[in-house]
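Aim 2, interim progress. The first record below pairs a target sequence with its structure tokens.
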Amino acid sequence: MKKLSLILIAIAFYTVGIAQEIHVNSATEFLRAIGSNKTIVIESGSVFNLTDAMLQLHNNYPKEYPMLDYYENEEQMAPLNNKVFSLNAYDGPEIALKGVRNLVIKGEASNLPLLLAEPRYAYIFSLYDCSNITFENIIMGHTNKGYCEGGVVALNDCRKINFFNCDLFGCGTEGLTANNVDGVKFNNSHIHDCSYSIMTLYNCQNFSFNNSMFFNNRMFNLVNIQGGATTTIRFTNCHFFQNHGQLFSLSDSIQLENCFITQPMDEWGDTEVIMDNGSVWSQPSGYPYDD
């Protein structure tokens, strides 16, 4: 009986840790709240400049919120588990998370909060070795347009990442960049107005995009799915429209089901490896595009 009581107490403490909910109404509070086993609720309609907040935290607490060099960070990053820090991109800090587990970041569905980054060459968020992370009811993007680098969200060696009712907008080069990631759900969400592409997935598995829209993106290969280990990529009830560039650049087969694709036929890309069930492909009106 005593052993059972100890087990129940341990379970109770574990459950409390998982369920910890923190409400924030400033960018600084938000960054300080990030960690494992938490739910962060952002006040309805908030607009957070993450760059200003991270610079302030780094200046005040340099050891707690370090800034690593972008191109020489692997050794420095190794001990930073369950940690938020920044990478010094070409024109400012990029928010990075490493080793974070069981984190939910969500806003109110009626008035989605906006998370912004100023550096044009930095991602809004870069995740390294994270798992069970959910972004829900969030808008993310840049204040200014960048080129060559700097998308919206980058995932590296991550597992089980969710985007529910999110809006990833351009001024970032692409909405989603993933390398060696297993398990992403992208539901009722959008990627739009990105300057180079929609997404790049490299050596990724078990990605499902559901009831989502991808529009007003340009200008090279738009949906890039590459790497010999990339498998089980599925789009269901998704809509692609008003995009400029080759739509699909694929190293292996993907699945489409009941999608709507409005794209010039000569810009469809690698359709021969697509397993399609019931999608509708159409030519956009007014093509060629009026830039």
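The second target in this work package is listed in the same format:
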Amino acid sequence: MIVTPTNKSATRLEGLHLFHADMSNCSMRVRMTLEEKDLPWTSHHLDLRKKEAVTPEYFGIHPKGLVPALVHDGVVHIESNEIIEYLDETFPDPPLQPEAEEERQEMRKWLRTATEIHVPAVKTLIYTRKIAKVLRKNEAEDARYRSLQRDPELLAFHAATTSGNGLPKEKVEKAEETLLRLFDKAEAELARHEWLVGDRFSLADISWVPLHFTLTGVDFPFDRYPHVSAWADTIRKRPSFQEGILRWCAKF
């Protein structure tokens, strides 16, 4: 997704510039893709603990104040799964999409699903179990966020996580049920072949392995998924995982 920034300094950037955060699973998949492609890129790291993304300057680049945002020759791209697909199409060597159209469509389903469940499932579980304590806002920080954020879903999520009561139990339970169902599907696919889509490492794997990494950090029961665990262990050995994830976030 391309957006027109109100912070015009972004339009003057040449080459590949990534605004990202160490602990962000969405940032992880973009960093991995850049490393798989061996592309030179300029890092603009935002420390979420210090609320460095909650500024008018950054909201002027990403209208929701989320990470990552990729700026390529002055054009701003947001939504991590769309960014990694854009990178693969713009820099096709080495290819990270299946050759067969049917498998390519299956790959895109994995990408779309990861996007759709980000707030209601992944973010809900991770915030409840860990991140809400790490990223707690004081009164002034809370007011600043509300003054900048315009997205209703994110405002509602923020209100619930900063209320002191946490997210409703039924929402947290639904988040875990959703993730269990999807990793059941992943387990079935990986029992049949090496990667999430056929026998070729693809953007689907890059999209989902950061979820495994971050959810492992909040005690998601991956012991019930031996094929998923073996798949993740294999990906951990890739230089793109070492550079794109562990270099920035050694442990979630």
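Residues 2-90 form a domain with the Glutaredoxin fold (CATH 3.40.30.10). This observation will shape the mutagenesis plan for the next reporting period.
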